[in-house]
Amino acid sequence: MNSHIPENLRCEYEKNPLGVQKSQPLLSWQVREEAAPESGWQQAYQIVASSKESLLLEGIYDRWDSGIVKSRRSYAIPYQGTALKSSERIYWMVRIQDQSGEFSPFSKAAWFEMGLLNDRDWKGNWMSFLGGLIGNGLLMRYSFSCQQKRIVRARAYVCCLGYHELHLNGSRIGDHLLDPAPTDCAKTVLYTTYDVTENLLPEDNVIGLVLGAGWAGQPKVLVQLNIEYEDGSRQEEFTDWGIGWCVAKGLSCITASTTEKTTMPGWKKTAGTHLLMSPGSCRSTNGRTAGSWPPWWKTQAVSRQAHCFLRSES
């Protein structure tokens, strides 16, 4: 048996991504360089995919079985299984055939999860501040209660004109910075998907949003929170007028060093004070929501006093 097992499985060049937007995501894998002869030993591959990891490991491929494909290609292979649905998670793995006709064992299972593919998946409306605050950031807050059931999956989708940080029950979600990336908002507006399954409390919860103007001038946001319970029931929370969203003036930009110093004490916690926050207002936008690309992360801090001067030696 061919012992060179494919590894580093990727979908859309990311490992186990959330919020995939394409109807035919691109799949890739690698084989250790030292394991492959100079002529390239992959002669064929087989990709299999299932709706559950247990089915995949049992050999029940209810989403896709590519069959034996004669190709040395191991990157950007389009998914060609059953039609993908919003929020659906697909588990997949791959094996390869070498020059002698021997197949490797299947790789370890990987997965990808779809985003919100249709406009109707977004139940709420865009929100901003009544009267507008051009150039200023916003703080937003919304309280809700979960049902007294076991939560099996919860996803928060945040689409924003400007930059955003998502907080849930006082804790920041994710480590992205300057999210989303700038786009031509008349054509494409990016959103970010967050796994918040472990961040929800059994009863009262609070969503907090820190919005920065960024390139938008005035930040606007569209939020969709989907909660799935063990019994198959579902709960949805979203941005909309008149359901309890509150807004206050925030920063003109978002930085890790200034967010906590300038916000209202407790504004993003369940027991926080938010009497000075006003009801939010709905704002429409012509942009289309679309999946995001790899985010920015903080890699190091540079002192504002650190300067570099260059002088020509004439």
Can you describe this structure in just a few lines?
With 314 residues, the protein is mainly beta. Helices cover 3% and strands 34% of the residues. The chain has a 6-stranded antiparallel β-sheet with strand order 13-12-15-10-18-19, with no helix packed on it. Strands 3, 4, 5, 7 and 8 form a 5-stranded antiparallel β-sheet that branches. It has a 5-stranded mixed β-sheet with strand order 17-16-11-14-21, with no helix packed on it.
Structural description of this entry:
It is a single chain. By secondary structure, this protein is mainly β. The protein has 2 helices and 21 strands. The strands form 5 sheets. A 6-stranded antiparallel beta sheet has the order 13-12-15-10-18-19, with no helix packed on it. The termini are far apart.
Write the layout of secondary structure elements.
Blueprint: E1 7-11, E2 26-30, E3 44-50, H1 53-58, E4 64-65, E5 69-70, E6 77-78, E7 89-97, E8 110-113, E9 127-128, E10 138-145, E11 151-161, E12 163-168, E13 171-173, E14 189-195, E15 204-212, E16 220-229, E17 234-238, E18 246-249, H2 259-262, E19 278-279, E20 281-282, E21 289-291
Parallel strand pairs: 14-21
Antiparallel strand pairs: 1-2, 2-6, 3-4, 3-5, 3-7, 7-8, 9-20, 10-15, 10-18, 11-14, 11-16, 12-13, 12-15, 16-17, 18-19
